[in-house]
Amino acid sequence: MDWGAIFSNAAVELISPTTAAYALAALGLAVHFGYTGLLNFGQAGFMALGAYGYAISILTFGFPVWGAFLVGVGASVIFALILGIPTLRLRADYLAIVTIAAAEIVRLLFTTNTYASVTGSANGLSGYKNEFAALNPLADGTYGFGPFTNNAYDTWLRIVAWSIVILAALLVWQIMRSPWGRVIKGIREDEDAVRALGKNVYAYKMQSLIFGGVLGTIAGMIFALPRAVVPSNYQTTLTFFIYAILLLGGAATVLGPIIGSMIFWVLLSFFSGFVARAVEAGWLPFMTSIQGGQLRFILVGVAIMLIVIFRPQGIFGNKKELAFVR
Amino acid sequence: MSANAVPQAAAPLEPPVPTKKPVKTTGLHIGEAAPGCAKVDPILVVDNVRRTFGGLTAVDVAHVEVPRGAITALIGPNGAGKTTLFNLLTGFDKPDGGKWTFDGRSLAGVPAYKVARMGQIRTFQLTKALGLLTVMDNMLLGAKGQTGENMFRALMPFLWRNQEEENRAKALDLLTRFKLDTKKNDYAASLSGGQRKLLEMARALMSDPTLVMLDEPMAGVNPALTQSLLDHILNLKSQGMTVLFVEHDMHMVRHIADWVIVMAEGKVVAEGDPHEVMQNPAVIDAYLGQHHDEDIGVDPDAETEHVSAIKELLDDER
């Protein structure tokens, strides 16, 4: 058993762009669910809009990187408005239903053959990385140490991805300790009480939906940069993985989604490496290597369940916040 | 409270009786004290407000005026439509029809948050303390016109830091008056029921309202806190605010209200001075039913709480 390779592969995930993308999407969800109490089950839809908005702008319209970025963000603002205008006046659970359905509509719209020339249908899109790579100020070569050694493009991508995550974390931290954040948290507790104090609850919920959605959209772009944009990546399971990360780290925290994403990906990679090699070594005779590939999700599920049972507030959550029955 | 308040001895076995007698405001109405009578200086005027739930008419108020600078009680048996009327007047519910004005401005169709911004602040029957916010954050949420509540300005603390400090000082002052200052950093969820009522009232005062609407401020409050709540309500009047409150505790109504509006089955059935209105046949009918003095073979011991409360009050008056 090559433990070195297993641990080194797991360590790679610690700072991978995918981890950064999940962290950012979970941060957006923390704004929605943890701070505002909005049950958004369509974060995958926001991410898809980011990925496709970026890829289509570059491939079809030849936009520069910043233009493609703005197209993605604009698309998610419009998406948030379409979701929010009819549902934010209603009870919280309606938003959950609408968002989960809307995210599926977005995914299926990108899958349909009708727009295959633009969206690439089920095969998705690729070949949009050159514009981003051209902005790379790093000279060719390898950077980093140990398991974190990467070529110039991957290093550049990691630097940009984690800078965005840190920037977004600071932004969320600052805005949640401002009077705006106080209103937002008040809405989570009881929106009628906040309304009775003269705050336009509807407008605040809309701002929160847009803010968290834009974070999800940028996460979608980071998610798309190391791979191709394929519609099947944006299924509802993506949203649920992000919820798992959020609960793991702590719903109403800033560091929780980031550390939660790191733990999630390191664990996933560790189990995947461990199970694959255990099957190879004949430790699990009842299992094929294909079945082993699925087992990692079961093990991650068990690990997350244990954390939620024994530390329900998440890793960074405040124990006091859960000590009271709502 | 006023300097010429007269101490009053507490009778045994009675609900906590205030130690000082509040100064009543009189001469509020024009003409006879009848349902819908005109007031000298009304702050809230309601005309033909109707709200039905299916076949049930919950509220059908033809005309009523709430006097400015006084404490007005809204009483009536359960299901009389008091809370529904509150919800309608504060924009939390939409009536089938009718109009109402606050300080001369029409409020029909105005959303709840705008009503609150105009200076008409309400509290709720079931207290709505924001449990997982600290007591101080609860208070700060009540302040009006905060620069930092704009999403973009929130990111620039130098724009709102001074205002925040002012609000904090004001909140601390209010919390001290309501004896909650030692709790300021605790979660509101850790407060007792009575303390939450106090917090909700203090929070409402953060916006310097002109009309405070309290929905059953005494419900579920232990007797030790009742006195302090009563004093706070009386203080609101002495600070120039108008108070409209819903209450079931007749002793409290009689003690602090300057004017009483009685509702039954959605309508205003009587109005008047708290001592006189209790003797009004319409009020007795509303609470006891129209045939309360006829013997219809009912066990006389089986009196409800309301019946005995009203009888006790009537006896007190004689």
UniProtKB/TrEMBL annotation, chain A:
Membrane recorded as keyword: yes
GO molecular function: branched-chain amino acid transmembrane transporter activity
Transmembrane segments: 6-31, 38-59, 65-85, 92-110, 156-176, 209-230, 236-255, 291-310
Subcellular location: Cell membrane
GO CC aspect terms: plasma membrane
InterPro entries: ABC_transp_permease, LivM-like
Membrane topology listed for this record: Multi-pass membrane protein
Keyword terms of this UniProt record: Cell membrane, Membrane, Transmembrane, Transmembrane helix
The protein, known as: Branched-chain amino acid ABC transporter permease
UniProtKB/TrEMBL annotation, chain B:
PROSITE patterns cross-referenced by the UniProt entry: ABC_TRANSPORTER_1, ABC_TRANSPORTER_2
Residues covered by region (Disordered): 1-20
UniProt feature coiled coil, ranges: none
Listed Gene3D superfamilies: P-loop containing nucleotide triphosphate hydrolases
Pfam families assigned to the protein according to its UniProt record, in alphabetical order: ABC_tran, BCA_ABC_TP_C
Keyword terms of this UniProt record: ATP-binding, Nucleotide-binding, Transport
Molecular functions (GO terms): ATP binding; ATP hydrolysis activity
Keyword Nucleotide-binding: yes
Name of the featured protein: ABC transporter ATP-binding protein
Origin species: Cryobacterium lyxosi
